[in-house]
Amino acid sequence: MPAYVVRVEQCMDDALPTADQVPERLHEAMRYAALTGGKRIRPLLVYATGECLEIDPAKLDIPATAIELIHAFSLVHDDLPAMDNDDLRRGQPTVHRKFDEATAILAADALQPLAFQVIATADHLSATEIKALISLISEACGSLGMTGGQAIDLASEGRQLSVDELARMHGLKTGALISACVMSACSLAAEMSDEKLRAMRQFSHDIGLAFQIRDDILDVQGDTEVIGKPVGSDQALKKATWPALFGIEESDRRCIELLNGAMDQLSLFGDSADSLRALASLIVERVK
User: Fold this and answer.
1) pTM to 2 decimals?
2) Domain range enclosing 27
């Protein structure tokens, strides 16, 4: 799906202020945070779901761009000294190392509202569609979603979580925005049965949890030069992770179990879901 990566990066480039606009350093940091590498898994999920539901790609550009900008904002904050204190992201210095801590905070702060501006000013969407996307994505990145999950993650350092507590944290920290990718495309579909909506919701839940478990595994088994960030940081910070609780073998097994469950949910959609199937496999089998 390389064409979709090129597409969303062009949309992001268009949405971001140019680096020569005042304040130049802030805009340079925003562009660095958003455009310096990345797998673009989240926008790819938007486009693949849209393919499955036969939605105009021009409509899909809006949630794909907005969600990736929000993801970029979250990574800048995650890397800060007050959070994970990481020096490397996507094989490059983190934003607070490339610029400075204050600029990093401001860049992240500016990326989040920019995401909602992209939605609010979209020419290809109706007022109803704009409202639905803003409601869905704002919940996914707020205290009942990604930000809440990060708060639980920080509060859980050095603690032994139960299976349910760990799954809930992962479901908020990573799963909520992953789910929003799939469900944002569903919200733009002309018509969907309740059965198909439930299937997509379960698919997004399963693949979101699998994504975070694979990240946990890569933090133990990955290669810094391959994954683009330091390995072993979760263990150093005594974070609650799936491998720490269950070990690598059980974590791998759970990933495959979740992938199989996600694939089952796509059976309703036939061949039109082939891009989603390929992306789900990539999420679980990736090495970076």
Assistant:
1) 0.93
2) 2-285
